[in-house]
């Protein structure tokens, strides 16, 4: 159950002109208009900040969800790829090359000199 309180959401951007010059395209020097414009600019900045904050939070959430999906998925490697393709993390979709993907995943998880050691028995 989730209700959005109406008071929490601002009605919209404040006017960038004072009440007197609301519809005047060229009000000339007006202190109230200047204040209104500054308030509007601050509002726009806040909106942009909030938007980019929300954006990065969303990106972080998505990255975390992706990480969990990859960790829980037996099909793909640590990057979420399976046979060079982005994995859907859907265990019901098991293709023929699963073994190859598992081998590739194992190789990626152990990036190291294992192969070099084996190929260099000196
Ligand atoms: Zn004005
Ligand atoms: Zn997967």
From TrEMBL:
- Compositional bias (Low complexity) spans? 1-10
Q: Where is the composition biased (Basic and acidic residues)?
A: 34-48
What are the start and end residues of every segment in region (Disordered)? 1-59
Q: What is this protein called?
A: Uncharacterized protein
Species name: Micromonospora parastrephiae
* Organism placement in taxonomy: Bacteria, Bacillati, Actinomycetota, Actinomycetes, Micromonosporales
């Amino acid at each position: 159950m989730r209700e959005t309180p109406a008071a929490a959401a601002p009605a919209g951007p404040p006017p960038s002109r004072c009440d007197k010059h609301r519809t005047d395209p060229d009000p000339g020097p007006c202190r109230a208009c200047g204040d209104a414009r500054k308030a509007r600019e601050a509002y726009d900045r806040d909106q942009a900040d909030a938007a980019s904050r929300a954006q990065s939070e969303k990106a972080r959430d998505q990255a975390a969800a992706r990480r969990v999906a990859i960790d829980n998925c037996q099909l793909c490697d640590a990057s979420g790829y399976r046979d060079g393709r982005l994995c859907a993390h859907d265990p019901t979709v098991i293709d023929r090359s699963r073994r190859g993907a598992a081998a590739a995943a194992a190789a990626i998880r152990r990036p190291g000199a294992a192969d070099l050691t084996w190929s260099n028995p000196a």
